Amino acid sequence: MINLGRWLRPGADGASMLGQVRSLFLVFCLLWSLVGVFGVEQGAGRETRVVTVAAIVLVELCLCWGYRRGTFPRALWLVEAPCVYLVAAASNFGVTIGLLYVWINFRALYGGRLDQLLGATCVVAIMGLGVGFDSLSLSDAVPLTVTALVGLIINHTLARGIGARDRAALRERVVAAAGARFAAVSDRGNAARAAAEAVAALDRSISATVLGTIAAGELRPIGYAGVAGRDAVDRTVNLATSGPAHQAALRPSGYAQIVGADATLFADQLGLPATDRVDLAPLAVGGKVFGLLVVTYDWCPQDDLSASLSTLADEAALTLDRLLTRSRLNIVVEHSHDALLLCGEQGTIRFANPAAARLLGIPREALTGRELHSLIHPDDLAAALAPQQRGAQIRRVRGPDPGSWTEFEVFVAYVTEHDGSRSLIFNARDISERQRLELELRHAQKLESVGRLAAGIAHEINTPMQFIGDNIRFLDESLTGLLALVAEVRERLDADADLARRMIELDVDFLVEEAPTAIRQTLEGVDRVATIVRAMKAFGHSGNDTMSPADLNEAIRNALTVAANEIRTVADVKTDLAKLPPVLCHIGDINQAVLNLVVNAAQAIGAAGRGRGEIRVSTRLDGHEAVIDVADTGTGVPPEIADKLFDPFFTTKPVGQGTGQGLPLIRRLIADRHHGSISFTSEHGAGTVFTVRLPIDSRHTPESTAAQAEVPV
């Protein structure tokens, strides 16, 4: 069945004032159709009445069809005009002539000037046929024709004015609705799509709308509406090669209109159908253009849309900028390493970022609604939340372990929000790494001071030892000749009893026998002191930040010499130092690393309590790496702590004897400073072997620079 209600409902513009006027005229046409049926002359035959009714019905169907579509094809004039003539002729141009007036006035509400000319031609033709074939007097035809034409002109003018008013009202509604949508969107993609759809709704002549951002001189679409396909989002337009016509739109408050071949080219670059006109409005914020609103048309619009397009472009730009700012703020907050809490003035937590959940060990959803004072140590609470604070405070905050408190660097600020309410911003920064680095720095400074002191002492010792050694060597050389002379004198003076007695009293034989031995032992002691001095000077040398080729074996010998006092009472040292090429390194770091490993080995042997042990230090060449092995017969590493051995502050020594910084320091010196690696194998109760690998040259640095590879066995 035909749904009459659907046909009586107006088209897309039915809710407008022009739509209401058209509906009113359509009702007049339907009512006058009844008058037309009864206005047929009484003497007319049945066929005439049937034809008249059929003509009236056909006219009304055409009018309803065009009313429903919102437009009339021009070919319908050729159908409607003959039917209206038949109805008028059936009444001898009497009362049914009113149908002519209502019909032409209704049709005046549609179409442009060409349609009105066609309507006027139809009116003149109908009246001319009445004068020529239906005995309509010219004196009657002329006023009827003039009246119909005047009504046609008046209603056409009225329709144009009402249509312009309706289109202006439509644009106002579209802009207002777009503002509401902009306020509700939460991401830039939805905002761009909402803006494009709003522009497409401004006028029926608009075929496509594209919003694009400008980066590096290229326009990249981010939203579209209309006939623009999804591939338009994948297109880019190089504005430097797309002609000068768009330049006016690249400044704030600007506007550009591209026509003709340039418009077709610009649309093609965006993947849009060919068009003769493209409008461009800038997307600008803060005096800077960051994008363009691109609009294409199927036909030239009846009104100037530049003001509406500029308004929508400005609103879209502000929305996109607001969302970009919000997105950047969210990125900063979500990826911040500091714990950020937004609390009410009374301390109830309203928002917590992921870092807060991680540092405090409490899920974000559990933090929301919790009281801030429950996270701060009671002794620090009043000072931490005191108003009018400046700068950072070191306060105790509850960490992941519920039973412990951790020191954080805390920033607190009281702010007034837009609604006038007061809020508290609590920023807690994890300073454990900074404290660790400060401790390491103090440790390094202490080592540096000790090194400088050792180098100074070595220098001071070296000077007297040099002249002592020189003098003893002089005595050694001189005594050799002197003893030979004494022997010869004794042979010549054997007859002198007094001289022989004196030589016996001086025990010259003993002096001749023991003096060379004493001098030789003294020289050995001097050489040993010189060796220790050289090792101390090499070990205490601070070096510089530039790597230089160095002899690893010499560095190991120096470290063993310096550590001899720690080692000699607990272990014997055996070395197996292979021939190595010079290694590009910071030799001071290597000295420190080897010394720490050797001292740790001696302490492990002492802790084992099994008597004197053994420390084996060996080197070897493995491809492009120099390898140092330090093995001991100490306690070994229990499997349960093997994965913690390189953790800062972890130590197996009694409280007060270890800082837990030795092995972490070695790892940083080897892995971070030299791109090498340190690993260990251990058998609990039997001993441990630490293996250090160093690239001989930075050009052969291993791809993997893992700090440690622990393999307890």
TrEMBL record:
Domain PAS: 325-380
Histidine kinase domain boundaries: 456-698
Record-given protein name: histidine kinase
Source organism, top-level taxon: Bacteria
UniProt GO molecular function: ATP binding
Protein location: Cell membrane
Enzyme Commission number: 2.7.13.3
PANTHER family: HISTIDINE KINASE, SENSOR HISTIDINE KINASE
Reactions catalysed according to its record: ATP + protein L-histidine = ADP + protein N-phospho-L-histidine
Record-annotated membrane-spanning stretches: 20-38, 50-68, 84-104
Keywords per UniProt: ATP-binding, Kinase, Membrane, Nucleotide-binding, Phosphoprotein, Transferase, Transmembrane, Transmembrane helix, Two-component regulatory system
SUPFAM superfamilies for this protein: ATPase domain of HSP90 chaperone/DNA topoisomerase II/histidine kinase, Homodimeric domain of signal transducing histidine kinase, PYP-like sensor domain (PAS domain)
Top class in the EC scheme: transferase
